[in-house]
Specification:
Keywords: DNA-binding, Transcription, Transcription regulation. It contains 12 helices and 12 strands. The strands form 2 sheets. A 6-stranded parallel beta sheet has the order 2-1-3-4-5-11, with helices on one face. A 6-stranded mixed beta sheet has the order 7-6-8-9-10-12, sandwiched between helices. With 344 residues, it is α/β, with parallel strands linked by helices. The longest helix is centred in the first third of the chain and has 16 residues.
Length: 344
Amino acid sequence: MRKKATIQDVADLAGVSKATVSKFINNTPYVSQKTKKKIEEAIKTLQFQPNSVARGLVKKSTKLIGLVVSNYESMLNMELIKAVEAEAAKYQFSVVLFSTNDEERHERELPEVLVNKYEHLDGIILANVRKEGVELDKFKQTFQHIVLLHRHIPNSAFDYVVIDGYQGGRIAAEHLVSLGHKKMAMITGPREIYQFQERIRGFNDVLQENGLHQDFLVVRSGQTVEEGLTAAKKVLIRPNAPTAIFASTDVMALGVLEAARDVGLNVPCDLSVIGFDNIYFSKFAAVPLTTIDARMRDLGEMAVRLLIERLEGRTKEGVRKIELSPNLVKRESCKERKHPIQRS
């Protein structure tokens, strides 16, 4: 009995890549007439019969969406994955997960991996990618529909949905200023991440408006609890240490809480702390964390809707840019400033 031909068999006989055969089947504009003829001849020779995935390609849909996250362990990403999968299921789409393991090298290699092995995906949602990491233009050669989630890359040609980081920074600063804090610090992540830069800008603008920017300290840190702890300790042992710290993520803020305890400070009596994201565990911290809600469920749901509207041809607009407004979630880690910092 003759073995059933596959897309790879067609590609081998035609002397092209699997991705090129998929483009041909999907009738994309990137295949030359000469190449089309080779593929047509190979299909005829092999009597190629598409499997369920290939048939989906012919119909321009496999009902599969790729979701790329920085890692699977992050509490933020877990919430995001759950939201994307639930929203996609409403439209009868399934989600294929990919992780870059927080490594820039893996982000750079990602386009080639997806193009070579997962070109049948209808579209891609890229969450939390670095500005310089993923080479986005390479995706366009195979995937027509891409949405950036929780990470805005300026001047990119892709739809994106993010939380308004600038407004989030302003909200955090306004809350601390309203509590009477005058010396504040911010612990934030890498410069290349646009969201972090926007949070700094929003926070600093409020301090400038209130004449408090001269003593504002910005400290760069990694994004783990341990790295947040290390950065916060360096801040808190300084002379004239700040009375409030805004951390760019809740995870880093958890490190700040530990650092305060280690140097003998009470949160919130001696030090006020605000995080950003409102991850599930922030309300269960040793001191329940006041934070800026990044609305991850809303972001995930909106990213799926943007992508599916493109896939189903329900919009012909140019690049769509959606920024959701963040909210302040008040818990127990911030307090009105009434006395100088005390160390036990």
